[in-house]
Structures are given as C-alpha cells and as structure tokens.
Specification:
By secondary structure, this protein is mainly beta. The chain has a single domain, classed as lipopolysaccharide transport protein A fold (Sandwich), CATH 2.60.450. It has one helix spanning about 1-15; strands spanning about 30-45, 45-60, 65, 70-75, 80-90, 90-95, 100-110, 115-125, 130-140, 145-155, 160-170. It has a six-stranded antiparallel beta barrel. The radius of gyration is 27 Å and the shape is elongated. The N and C termini lie far apart (about 120 Å).
Amino acid sequence: MRLFLFILLILVSSCAREPILEMPSRDGMPDQESWGVTIVLTSEGLIRAKVRSGHLEKYNEKKFVLLDSSVMVDFFNEKEQHTSVLTSKTAEVDQASNDMKAMGNVIAVSDSGITLYSETLTWNSKDEKLHTKDNIMITTLEKDTLYGVGFESDSDMKNWKILSPSGVTGRELE
C-alpha cells in the first residue's frame, strides 16, 4: 500500500502544470519585411515609377507600405521615358491607390533641371501629380531660387506652381 501511495504521489506531482508563456502581441508589427527592395508602379501596363528603398515594412490590414531607409523614386512618362527623380528619408505607399507620400529631406529633380526641396511631397498615382502644403524651395537652371508654401506639379515637373510664392532671381530687370 505504501508503494502504491508513493507511486501515486510521484505521478500527481509530475503532472503539475507549468505556466504557459504568452507569445508577444503582433499588434503594430508588419506582416512582411524586406531589405534592398524595388517596387515598380504601373498604369495600364506601362511603368510610371520605380521605387527603391533599403527597408520595407508591409501592413496587410492597413493596405500600407512603409519605406524607411534611403528612398529613391524614378518617374517615367507615358512613353516610359525617365522624367524626374525623388529622394527622401522615408515614404508611405497606400496599396489601394498606389499614392505615395515622401517625408524627410525630400528632393525632387526633373530631367529639365528644376530642383524642389521640401519636407514632404505626395504623389497622386491616378492624376500623376505631385503636391505639398509645406514650405518649399525651387532652384532653376537660370539660377533662380523660389520659395513658397504649397506646391503642385505634374510628375515630370514641367508644369508646376507655387501656391504662395516668394523668391530671389539672379536676372537683371529689363
């Protein structure tokens, strides 16, 4: 009988439950991550933009992609010819619309020589327009420097306007 009680005691104590450790929550964590990525954005089968970044985080539920390392975007016209390049520290891409918002030390340079400096710049993929409500500075090949608040342009930066302009020119008055 003592042997039976001893074995029963061993069995009961060996079946003790250890606390189950909970896995950390994935809330706020990306569903996918990639390094050294290139994203090609197209419209009707034509390349409209190539986006490169050192790091990408994709959030499926939010339909949102965060590019957070040395973002570079090349824009192309309807003939798939290069028109401009944009660089920034980070960018966000809305997967539903393909719209992109570049943030942090944004520099956009057109192949025609216009350079735009801003802290943010949004690209609307449907209209293929660039815009910001932030302070901007533009330099031209003619050595003009224009300042202002707010900016709108097509992707190739040929047709642009500053919403509240001010500036300095190197040209003499006629």
